[in-house]
Design a protein that fits this description.
about 180 residues; mainly beta; SH3 type barrels; Immunoglobulin-like; four-stranded mixed beta sheet; 15 strands
Length: about 180
C-alpha cells in the first residue's frame, strides 16, 4: 500500500510540475542573478532595471524566483522583491511536437530543428539541450509527460507540456515569430 501511495504522490508531483503557469516580469532595480536561491550562491550576472525575465512560476524558493534572463538566455534566480509588472504567459500548444509515426524503438524519438540564427536551449523537465543555429538533433525520451521551455536570447520563451508515447516519432522546428504592436 505504501508503494502505491508513493507512486501516486510522485505522479501527482510530476503532473503538477508539467502544467504550471509561467510568467513575464521585469526587474525593478539593478540586482544580482544567482546560480541558486540564496545569497550563498554564486552571482551569474547583474540584471539592470526593466530587464525582462521569464518566471518558471510564481512559486518562490527561499524568496527567490527561478527565471531566465530574456536578453542573454541565462537561467538563474533573483529575489522575488526585485521583480515587478508580472503577467501570465500563454502556454504553447502541445501540437508543436508533431507526431511523425511509429518507430521500432521502445523510446520516443524527438527530432528538433533550430531554424534560427540564434543559439536555442530546449529544456525537457530537468534536462537541457543546446542547439546551435540551424542545428538538428534527435532526442530519445522514455514515455511520459514532459514540461518544455524553448528559449533564445532576445526572445520570450515558448513553454508548455507534451505527452510523448513510446515507440512514436515526433518532429519540432523552432523558429521565431516577430510581432509588431
Amino acid at each position: 500500500m505504501r508503494k502505491i501511495s508513493f507512486v501516486i504522490l510522485l505522479l501527482l508531483f510530476f503532473t503538477l510540475q508539467a502544467f504550471s503557469q509561467s510568467y513575464l516580469g521585469y526587474i525593478s532595480k539593478k540586482t544580482s542573478m544567482r546560480d541558486g536561491p540564496g545569497k550563498q550562491y554564486e552571482v551569474i550576472t547583474t540584471l539592470i532595471k526593466n530587464a525582462p525575465v521569464f518566471l518558471y512560476s510564481m512559486d518562490t524558493e527561499d524568496g527567490y524566483y527561478h527565471i531566465i534572463d530574456i536578453e542573454s538566455n541565462t537561467e538563474g534566480y533573483v529575489l522575488s522583491s526585485y521583480v515587478k509588472s508580472i503577467e501570465a504567459l500563454e502556454k504553447t500548444s502541445d501540437k508543436v511536437f508533431a507526431p511523425t509515426g511509429r518507430i521500432t524503438s521502445s523510446y520516443s524519438e524527438v527530432s528538433v530543428y533550430n531554424n534560427t540564427s540564434k543559439t536555442m536551449t530546449l529544456k525537457l523537465n530537468s534536462s537541457a539541450y543546446v542547439f546551435s543555429p540551424q542545428e538538428r538533433k534527435s532526442i530519445s525520451l522514455t514515455q511520459g509527460t514532459y514540461s518544455f521551455v524553448a528559449s533564445a536570447s532576445g526572445v520570450i520563451p515558448n513553454y508548455g507540456s507534451k505527452f510523448f508515447e513510446k515507440g512514436m516519432g515526433y518532429n519540432w522546428e523552432f523558429y521565431i515569430v516577430t510581432r509588431r504592436y
